[in-house]
Amino acid sequence: MRGNEVVKVGPGPLGFDDVVGVARHGAAVRLTEESLAAMERARTRVEDLAASPVPAYGVSTGFGALATRHIDPALRARLQRSLVRSHAAGSGPEVETEVVRAMMLLRLRTLASGHTGVRPATARLLAALLDAGITPVVREYGSLGCSGDLAPLSHVALALMGEGEVRDRDGRAGPAAEALARAGLAPVELAAKEGLALINGTDGMLGMLVLALADLDVLLKSADIAAAMSVEALLGTDRVFAADLQALRPHPGQAAAAANLRAMLRDSGIMASHRDDSCTRVQDAYSLRCAPQVAGAARDTAAHAAAVAGRELAAAVDNPVVLDDGRVESNGNFHGAPVGYVLDFLAIAAADVASMAERRTDRMLDVARSHGLPAFLADDPGVDSGHMIAQYTQAAIVSELKRLAAPASVDSIPSSAMQEDHVSMGWSAGRKLRRALDGLTRVLAIEILTAARAIDLRRPLTPAPATGAVVAALRQEVPGPGADRHLAPEIESVVRMVAAGTVVAAAESVTGPLA
């Protein structure tokens, strides 16, 4: 999905492509007539409660541990403004634009469900900010992932009020009031319950989960490509990837990874060169032989995470909520545990896939295990160091990924005078997963760069058509074997190729779509 497409936002669930399209590619959003009608119905109920002498949480009371105070009607507009201003307490580095846009879209979807009680005009303004490319500046720290992503969403709500800092479509930072004025938009004066409805959701962590799943789809295919290239480079065997062997352990992810490896290695001249009695090795090392088992387990983990994300994309997370029968009820649906757990789970998978990739790279550089390749793939070992320090870089990243794999979701810290005495830390899990996926991208890029060099050094033996296509794509950006040269720019070039899906596209130009 690209920026010239339109995502319709209504009471029903959003699709993964919808989120990615709006967050990354600037797709437009439109509220459906059904959603506008649903919001009108819920708003009528909220206004009835606001006029009632009976206290209603979030409508006529304070918040959190201050919920025992009944707020006079004359103070309720101030109540909503004060809520947003006080909760916009984030600190630290700026959160990426794509994450903030995903969070905005997901909050808009919950508003459109008709279960929050906001006015249609407030939802329309949030949609208008997305369409205008106005992105509130959100800071990394502040969310505990319970009562939703309160601080990050408060920075978004602040922009709707014409306050705080935003970035425009060109990335320029400035006051929200000025950006809204340039776009022809008027700030909203929040009415009863609207401040709370804008900030009480798990939209930030869910947005990061959806974006991570899109990235993992590319990265896990890239991991299979990297493994296939390393198998060729190390004169390994592809017999262990046979479908009948893999079927003895019927995990779907494992089957998919093995199928990718078979497709990548089909018709390999390098593989054919040692399918005879001259090969004395009984079996390959685990980092080669077990590649489908590890990458497959990561795929199955991603599939579970996608199932959780799919359910969340159909959820209406707010407290209190307006039910279809008109009741307004408090609830605990804002707790981020379901999302936090799978974000942590994916960080474990990313660390393990990267760890195996680093081990394969190390084998290609070691003359005792590389089966005839020069030390460190150097042009003149001793004078040249080849890819020695590229593996150091991998090792440093893998070590960091192991630390990032420690779960955030078990680390609850009570808040709000013990009213919020158990929190999910799901936002923190999402932040560290984003760093983990960046690290995995870099580790795979170094393996692919190293394996391409090793495959070139095997000439006149020829690689498989698919792995050869990947090597050819790399050679458009990075030179082949030779004397030592500045290696960091070459690594960054391949990092960009992996992240953009260029490596996968090169492979698929031969194999067709990989699993």
TrEMBL record:
Alphabetical UniProt keywords: Histidine metabolism, Lyase
What name does this protein carry?
Histidine ammonia-lyase
Encoded by which gene?
hutH_2
Pathway of this protein?
Answer: Amino-acid degradation; L-histidine degradation into L-glutamate; N-formimidoyl-L-glutamate from L-histidine: step 1/3
Q: Which EC main class describes this enzyme? A: lyase
Its annotated compartments are:
Cytoplasm
Query: Recorded E.C. number(s)?
Result: 4.3.1.3
> Primary place of residence?
cytoplasm
What GO CC terms are in its UniProt record? cytoplasm
Assigned protein family: Belongs to the PAL/histidase family.
Reaction equations catalysed? L-histidine = trans-urocanate + NH4(+)
Checking InterPro entries in the record gives:
Aromatic_Lyase, Fumarase/histidase_N, HutH, L-Aspartase-like, Phe/His_NH3-lyase_AS
Q: Which PANTHER family match?
A: HISTIDINE AMMONIA-LYASE
